[in-house]
Design a protein that fits this description.
It contains 8 helices and 11 strands. By secondary structure, it is of the alpha/beta class. It has a single domain (6-230), classed as Class I glutamine amidotransferase (GATase) domain (Rossmann fold, 3-Layer(aba) Sandwich). The strands form 3 sheets. Strands 5-2-1-6-7-11-10 form a 7-stranded mixed β-sheet, with helices on both faces. It has a two-stranded antiparallel ribbon with strand order 3-4. 44% of the residues are buried.
């Protein structure tokens, strides 16, 4: 009897919901796979913009996932210094066949000691901080190094989820899922990365995120120090 493979998506307070729900929409359509949303407890979790999501299992009841998916968002900064969350990611990743981080979720992979010497990306406003975990920073929208997949900010999680499906089940399956969800993005503006957005828009975005950047820098420094002490 073949064991059904399981994908587990990490849920934590203050995360960006599309980092989770975008990939979930893709991965949950993987033929033959079971998809679970896992959090510390079974209590509903409030995301950064107020959407409440209920996990399907807690850390204690989670099996070994074949694919572990780690989203990002403002709540990542607290998760980085939460020993229980970091350890859960580390242990799950050690036994998973594939590891997938979205947005600032890649920082959490770094805090778990998974990115040393690995190419990895993340949200444009935070990916430079990956160097503190020994990662080689990638500016690409999608980055794969071995069994570790990292995606840029938020919406890129859908793109990478389709690539994960292609690697797990073949391109035809991924293309069918893409068609089923009618994923054919055509944004009205060419401003989706700091490389193409008007300079004044980039400056405004950086200014708006300056407070969060300071919080994140402190959290990353603490997480990196904790990781180094573990050796």
């Amino acid at each position: 009897m073949t064991t059904q493979p399981i994908a587990g998506l990490l849920l934590f307070p203050g995360m960006t919901q599309l980092d989770l729900t975008g990939p979930y929409e893709v991965i949950a359509r993987l033929p033959g796979w079971r998809t679970e949303i896992v959090a510390k407890t079974l209590a509903p979790v409030t995301t950064d913009k107020g959407l409440v999501i209920t996990p399907s299992m807690d850390f204690a009841g989670a099996p070994q996932f074949d694919l572990i998916i780690v989203p990002g968002g403002p709540g990542t900064d607290d998760a980085l210094t939460d020993a229980e969350t970091v350890e859960f990611v580390r242990v799950q990743a050690a036994g998973a066949k594939h590891i997938f981080g979205i947005c600032t979720g890649s920082l959490l992979l770094g805090a778990a000691g998974l990115l040393k010497g690995k190419r990895a990306g993340g949200h444009w406003a935070a990916r430079d901080l990956l160097t503190q975990f020994g990662a080689i920073v990638s500016d690409a929208r999608m980055t794969k190094d071995g069994n570790i997949y990292t995606a840029g900010g938020v919406t890129s999680g859908i793109d990478m989820a389709l690539q994960v499906v292609a690697d797990l089940a073949g391109e035809d399956v991924a293309k069918q899922i893409q068609l089923q969800i009618e994923y054919d993005p055509a944004p009205p503006f060419n401003a989706g990365t700091p490389f193409v957005a008007p300079p004044e828009i980039v400056a405004r975005a950086r200014a708006a995120g300056a407070g969060r950047r300071k919080i994140r820098e402190d959290a990353v420094a603490l997480a990196a120090d904790t990781l180094s002490r573990k050796g």
